[in-house]
From TrEMBL, chains A, B:
This is ArsR family transcriptional regulator. Signal peptide: none annotated. InterPro entries: ArsR-like_HTH, HTH_ArsR_DNA-bd_dom, Metal_resp_trans_reg, WH-like_DNA-bd_sf, WH_DNA-bd_sf. It comes from the Bacteria. CDD domains: HTH_ARSR (cd00090). Pfam families: HTH_5 (PF01022). It comes from Kribbella albertanoniae. Residues 3-97 form the HTH arsR-type domain. Keywords: DNA-binding, Transcription, Transcription regulation. Transmembrane segments: none annotated.
Amino acid sequence: MSAPVPLYQAKAEFFRVLGHPVRIRVLELLQDGPRPVRELLADIAIEPSALSQQLAVLRRYGIVVSRREGPSVVYELAGGDIAELLRTARRILTELITGQNELLAELRGAEAAAQ
Amino acid sequence: MSAPVPLYQAKAEFFRVLGHPVRIRVLELLQDGPRPVRELLADIAIEPSALSQQLAVLRRYGIVVSRREGPSVVYELAGGDIAELLRTARRILTELITGQNELLAELRGAEAAAQ
DNA sequence: TAGCGAATTGAAGAATGTTGCAAGTCGTGA
DNA sequence: TCACGACTTGCAACATTCTTCAATTCGCTA
């Protein structure tokens, strides 16, 4: 192979690709099955070209695949485990946010006490 | 709460935070348990200040926590599920890379046939 | 309490990523 | 084969993120 990319770098790159609001929304929509661009566009209110750019990123990394169906283009998740990753992420996020809220509550309490 | 951040945006932000080579390496090292900065520094060959910057990012998002132990500062993973997320990511990545290699092999074959 | 090692912070410039618009491709039906 | 809808691509302006280096903080001990 040409470039022996270290694994940790590939991993970082992978997460970075997931780290964009539009791309995440696309992946979440695709969890329920294949969808034409037209529908994605209806759910995510952005310019067609902006969506296309982000779809191109997901495609370039092999996270989604696309095929033409007559006049429209249909996208779907490439691997079966992406959905699981998103679920795990959601769980962690819930934990983190809960933790932050507790912390926030504590801080508020301390603040009030200090007044 | 002050800002009603949409969930998909929080999720994207979370992935983006994971999407950095140094941060990923730190998280992988911390999977085996708490470690002082000094040790992280020994494993990841970068300047102390650069590591500190990235640790600060992880801390800011509540992904790791730090505490001072005498002369050194010890870091550890904040939530229990981060390790699982990393494992899932590794599995997906393995799939993706395998898929890409197969594709590459096909392309090479086709190329050779076309010559 | 002066000094040293360990780690963090601040700030500026460099590098990357994102957005928006204009132009281009590809099917399909008139 | 012209025209139109559905997408994609190229590119320049703009925004964010990273790196680097100097300055600073915090414990500890001589």
